[in-house]
Amino acid sequence: MGGGPKPEHLLVILPFDAPTAIFDRIRRNHPQIKITFHQLHFAETPWKARSQVPTEIFHDATLLLTLSALPPSPKDCPKLELIHFTSAGTNHIANSPIYTDTTIPLTTSSGIHGPQIAEWVLMTMLTSSRHYNILHNWQKSHFWGNEDKRSIGLLRSLHDKVGQRLGVLGYGSIGRQVGNVAKAMGMDVIAYTARPRTTPESKHDNGFIVPGTGDPKGEIPSAWYSGTSKEDLHHFLAQDLDQLLISVPLTKQTTHLLGEEEFEILSKHNAFISNISRGSIISQPALIAGLKAYDSHITSLRTDKDSFAVALEADMKADTSIPGLRGAALDVTDPEPLPKDDPLWDAPNCIITPHISGLGSAYVDRCFQVLEINLERRKKGEKLINLVDRGRGY
What we know:
Elements (H helix, E strand, L loop, with lengths): L7 E7 L5 H10 L3 E7 L23 E4 L15 E4 L11 H4 L5 E2 L6 H16 L2 H9 L8 H8 L8 E5 L3 H12 L3 E6 L29 E4 L3 H8 L5 E4 L13 H8 L4 E4 L8 H19 L5 H9 L10 E4 L19 E3 L10 H18 L14
Helix pairs in contact: 3-6, 8-9, 9-10
């Protein structure tokens, strides 16, 4: 006659202090769940954290929330029924026996990163286009700047984002929030996904959405492109993009998705590249070459005072006679950490940050919100959100 929900054991392995307030919330809403916390500190990067975790800690767990730590083999977790990752993707554990040799449902925290990463994308885009480094150097030098005629001329030539086109390569939760903010700035947004989105329902975002953000119904893009072939991708990239956001998951199919050919297409409109996905989605040597081509041409114009006005105009308006890429903002590189002698560090007009765009004070709580939604869905026998499709790799 013993009714009620069956006892559960949630094992939480995180590189943070125990989120006790969140644990209390889960216990109130799910009193049948026992929670065990194990702190695992970061290794060289958040995405490659490795440490010794006692194997026996997994034995009785029915639920696991983790960044990357997993049981060594399926036999070490005979009761495990759900694994929730605090990352948006699972490429970092795709070679694990738990991923390859079991059917344990895997869910991600996709959707929680949209607000903070969108802010990073807009921050770095505007830092570049508004020539913020000039302003910052003036301030550090206690210099009002009015006597720097060349820089003043450059700043006067600035073109705002109204009417510029943003191409979102991978219109998931992050791409949708970037599109949301970009449209508010007056930009035209176009989207690219692997699968066609030909009906209103197919354009919906069915994953976790931070309230008030994103594009839940997929209504923002003025055009929607799709496909998995080179021809499909090239057709999208050829749409006179002023900025390209790379927000596709890393899979075998997307590794080095963007190389010399693709950057050559983007160079025809001197696009600015933002990558918040994974470093190995692009060919870094090809990116460097594109950045150098543009910078070299602009520099040669600036050495000639008669051509300086042309250079100012070229800085803010795409000119098919000027080769190369206007600039790039990269929160991800290949490898990570980026070696000190890597040429990417010195690529012109390139902003590099150490995979931090997704960080923020709301990160941990939102990770658990996704898990808690799925706990309710499991109880009701409903489909989980953010469920990983092992066949597709995300």
